[in-house]
Amino acid sequence: MMGLAAALLALPLGGFGGTSHSTESALAAQGHPASYTVQAGDSLWSIAQRMDPSGDPRPIVSQLASELGTYSVIPGEQITLP
Fold this sequence. Notes:
Layout: H1 2-10, H2 26-29, E1 34-37, H3 44-51, H4 58-68, E2 78-81
Antiparallel strand pairs: 1-2
Helix pairs in contact: 3-4
């Protein structure tokens, strides 16, 4: 029983109707721009880090801020990811 509980906890939330705050879509993987709905607690920095966890988020933050005209985001806002 403990093994089953541990296995279920290891599964991603998106597999069971939860949200994992993914910033990519199948369209983005094909070269099309992806749209992202800003969640509570998000910032351009956190979004950029999720887009490229191993890279430097500064270029992505700068590009997003340039496109938005601000460094601030509001929960519920739709943004187009580079």
